[in-house]
Amino acid sequence: MDNLKGAKRIVVKVGTSTLTYETGKANIRRIRKLVEVLSDLKNSGMQIVLVTSGAIGIGVGKLGLSAKPKDTPGRQAAATVGQCELMFMYDKLFAEFGHITGQLLVTKLDFENEERKNNLSNSFNKLFEYGAVPVVNENDAVAVDEIVFGDNDNLSAIVANLINADGLIILSDIDGLFSGNPKTDDNAVLIPVVEKITEEIETLAGGAGSNRGTGGMITKIHAAKVAGSAGIPTAIINGSNPEDIYRLIEGRQTGTFFRPESREE
Predict the structure, then answer these.
(1) What SS3 state is found at 104?
(2) Mind giving me the DSSP string for 131-200?
(3) Inter-CA distances, 113 with 48, 107, 116, 120, 138, Å
(4) Under 8 Å between Cβ of 90 and 52
(5) Is residue 3 a contact partner of residue 192, using CB atoms and an 8 Å limit?
(6) Distance CA 71, CA 43 (A)
(7) Given this model, what pLDDT does residue 124 score?
(8) What is the pTM of this model?
């Protein structure tokens, strides 16, 4: 399988660079299109979880700061402002298409502590039962070094595992994994399918993220590895056109598809 055709429950992760402009302000047109696509898929009977970054970035833009604060309290404060704005937009836009959202702000402790993990799993199951769209983000306002995921790519894979998802879709600012750096290597080509994540693959993915995001391709590869170890396939595609998600669901080649390990019966 080189696509997500037939998937019934998927996790979609969207990053700050996809959600915002270089100014730090929200890319409303793209957010609206993403919500429209996810709402349409939900109408078809799929269960959708949206793992979203962007709280700090949008908070920085709304506060009129010239750059992301370097100190932890500054980033936490920006996150509280941005999270309000982000959820307001998601709630409003999903409602326009007839869907309800539920916000889950989490830290690593919520997955490492068995009681918290069970409570979180129960929350997801009830949200699905009620027909709501879970919108997940790291709780940046309280997260400190020892309880942070570091990036929402990793978080999306852990969430996919928790809810036993059929697939993980990571929206990036690049088309997928290339044989080289497409920004500097004219001969770099897109790798459509990765059979197994090796050291060579991880080397190809080396490099930092954008000035607005926290990850980069390497964090997405690590997420694919985490999801794959749980038998969950991952696709990394360019988030500039959210309608490309349809291509995956319809079984057409899009971005880079990471084959998972076989699930145990």
Answers:
(1) strand
(2) T-EEEEEE-TTT--GGG--SSHHHHHHHHHHHTT-SEEEEEESSSS-BSS-TTT-TT--B--EESS--HH
(3) 25, 11, 5, 10, 16
(4) yes
(5) no
(6) 43
(7) 98
(8) 0.92
Residue 42 in tokens:
């939900």
Dihedral of the CA atoms 137, 256, 162, 145 (nearest 10)?
A: -40
> Which residues on neighbouring strands pair with residue 106, listed in sequence order?
138
Q: Which 8-state DSSP code applies to residue 265?
A: -
Cα separation of 149 and 197, whole Å?
Answer: 21
**pLDDT the model gives residue 112:** 92
The whole-angstrom separation of Cα 262 and Cα 174 is: 28
pLDDT, mean of each 10-residue run, the chain (265 residues): 85 93 87 98 98 91 88 90 95 98 94 95 98 94 68 94 97 91 85 93 69 66 96 96 95 94 60
Query: What tokens appear for 227 in the block?
Result: 């999801």
> Which secondary structure element, helix H or strand E, spans residue 237, and what is its range?
strand 234-238
Rounded to a whole number of angstroms, the CA Rg of the chain reads 17
d(CA 47, CA 167): 11
Cβ 141 vs Cβ 76: under 8 Å: yes
How far CA 125 is from CA of 4, 65, 136, 138, 165, in Å, comes to 22, 39, 14, 19, 12
Q: What does the alpha-carbon distance between residue 67 and residue 263 come to, in Å, rounded to a whole number?
A: 44
Kindly give the interhelix angle for 72-96 and 55-63, rounded to the nearest 10 degrees: 100
What stretches of 44-139 show up as alpha helix (H) in DSSP? Answer: 55-63, 72-96, 109-112, 114-130
The residue type found at 232 is I
Query: Residue 4 has which token pair?
Result: 């997500």
